């Protein structure tokens, strides 16, 4: 059986790398099983539309008058999709939406699903109104090679707790997370905070170019999703934490319970004083991490070899052989 190429288009403006996902396989040039991931291939055999937005904002005219007026809702237009499909037929085109169904963007997500039906044979997202509700296959954001992640023993742990987050506050869920961050810092529980665009009141260790350095030396890592209200959504926050051999203190929906072995992560009960007390109790000693080490090892294997987006794509392509 000949190897098939998989191209990719996305709505993420910064995701333009030709080597996208190549770090998620032990083989050169994005090869995994029967596929080769070549995001920018001019004539791929299959095409992944990854968080692709079919609608784009119309540019606003910035006259002195419009600057004085109350902002109006963004006007949008359909993107010219045909020029982006590179000749891939509908039956070999996949649409995966990965962002959570936050109240503020549900309408946008539904519109994208409807438009995707014109071009894609498989359309999925981590919500109940997707044509095929499903977990988002795993991607991760460590720079380590696949072989290094797969073969490594636990790195030396030196500190108790870290949290990597951002100061994004555009939705109610984002603001809830920032409120919890403020409570956690006021509690004086020792932890190191990393991230971008954090508010001025946050005591932070700064931004990162590689998340590994803010996870690997820590026993515990706070993995707090932006959305915890359904049984489908789980993100790289959990995968990154486990791949760095942390024991995640996880706040999210029940999807993680379906995908990972018991004991491989701890469930944060709530984003309030009860949650603060739980973090304080767990992180007081490394005992929970030592007890979970074998479960963490099992979870890492599942993430690397089963949940891996490349493995998912390979299984999809297998159906055409």
What value does the average pLDDT take?
Answer: 94
Number of domains as seen in the coordinates: 2
Ends apart, CA distance between termini: 8 Å
Give the oligomeric state: single chain
CATH superfamily of the largest domain: Glycosyl transferase family 10, C-terminal domain
How would you describe this structure to a colleague?
Belongs to the glycosyltransferase 10 family. Keywords: Glycosyltransferase, Transferase. InterPro entries: Glyco_tran_10_C (IPR055270), Glyco_trans_10 (IPR001503), GT10-like_C_sf (IPR038577). One of its GO terms (cellular component) is membrane. The chain has helices spanning 64-68, 106-116, 146-151, 172-187, 236-243, 255-259, 273-283, 287-307, 309-318; strands spanning 4-10, 31-32, 35-37, 46-50, 55-57, 76-78, 93-96, 122-125, 132-133, 159-166, 192-196, 218-224, 247-251, 266-267. It is an alpha/beta fold. The protein folds into 2 domains: 4-134, no CATH class; 146-306, 3-Layer(aba) Sandwich (Rossmann fold), CATH 3.40.50.11660. A 7-stranded mixed sheet has the order 2-3-1-4-7-8-9, covered by helices on one side. Strands 11-10-12-13-14 form a 5-stranded parallel sheet.
Keywords:
alpha/beta; Rossmann fold; seven-stranded mixed beta sheet; 9 helices; globular; Glyco_trans_10; Glyco_tran_10_C; Glycosyltransferase
Q: Topology of this structure?
A:
Elements: E1 4-10, E2 31-32, E3 35-37, E4 46-50, E5 55-57, H1 64-68, E6 76-78, E7 93-96, H2 106-116, E8 122-125, E9 132-133, H3 146-151, E10 159-166, H4 172-187, E11 192-196, E12 218-224, H5 236-243, E13 247-251, H6 255-259, E14 266-267, H7 273-283, H8 287-307, H9 309-318
Parallel strand pairs: 1-3, 1-4, 4-7, 7-8, 8-9, 10-11, 10-12, 12-13, 13-14
Antiparallel strand pairs: 2-3, 5-6
